Amino acid sequence: MENQTMVYNLVLSGLSDLPSLQLPLFLVFLLVYLMTLTGNLLIVLLICTDSHLQTPMYFFLGTLACLDMGYSSVTTPRMLFDFHTQKRLISIQACITQIFFFVFFAVSEISLLAVMSYDRYVAICHPLHYTQIMHWKTCVRLILGTLIFSMLYPVVHVLLLLTLTFCRLTPLQSFFCDLPQLLLVSCSDTFINVLLILIFAILFGGGIFALTFCPYIIILNTIMKMQSKAMRSKAFSTCSSHLTVVFIFYGTCFFSYFHQKTKDPSAVDKVTSVFYAVLTPLVNPLTYSLRNEIMKISLKKALCDLNILKEKNVFK
């Protein structure tokens, strides 16, 4: 049996090896990260300060904004650090920690999108009983259940990762520690890890996917039966933002993990991983703010109040 040298640090391949691109990429992704934090934080502040937005629908939207900030913060700061230092070294412990939080926020987000589908189902199909079904205790329990499930999901993967050994110097073909990429550089038998990923993807991933999209079959059937054109338009508008976010998140994830391999798969993987790991948290607040009339009205009101306060301070 050949002697194997244990590896305690891994190398991330990053987005580009060209030194001339490091500073431009650093500035671009720094801007994207700041815009992501600003957009999602603005949504949270509007929901907390505007009484018209303190409903279950916007409570879930505020939670989604918080998850987006955490989701983006797991990968982008590390990527910015690597652009700055150009070393791209990460310890095994730090890599597994990043995987834990990335999986946690990803599962939390798709689970929350399923909860938001149920909220839209109740609001459109059972409007008279909406306040009774979706009272605040129910909303809090749904969020807590989502977070607990999302916390337990990556724990199983992490416990199995801790049993693996790493003795290869092959770089991870990504700008962050992704679970499939980490398994590729392990010198241990990863059959159980891969099997667990497939089982969880089928059971939990398939279940969450069904809970997200199945309510919309009933929702669309209910909307088509509405006699008032104004009611149909209002019902469609309340669902369009949520559906847009769902399709963006699932579309980028599915394309990243299930696309047909090309001659240079690493380049394709890096580009698609940027979309679902970095750009999706930026797109979500833009989608909800631009497609939601109540959010736009609340934002305009907040800006007007801010201008009034500034004018008062000037005159003082």
Automatic annotation (TrEMBL):
Superkingdom of the organism of origin: Eukaryota
Key words, A-Z: Cell membrane, G-protein coupled receptor, Membrane, Olfaction, Receptor, Sensory transduction, Transducer, Transmembrane, Transmembrane helix
Membrane topology of this protein: Multi-pass membrane protein
Residues annotated as domain G-protein coupled receptors family 1 profile: 39-288
Stretches that traverse the bilayer: 25-46, 58-76, 96-118, 139-166, 191-218, 239-259, 271-290
Cellular component terms (Gene Ontology): plasma membrane
Alphabetical list of InterPro entries matching this protein: GPCR_Rhodpsn, GPCR_Rhodpsn_7TM, Olfact_rcpt, Olfactory_GPCR
UniProt family annotation: Belongs to the G-protein coupled receptor 1 family.
UniProt-recorded name of the protein: Olfactory receptor
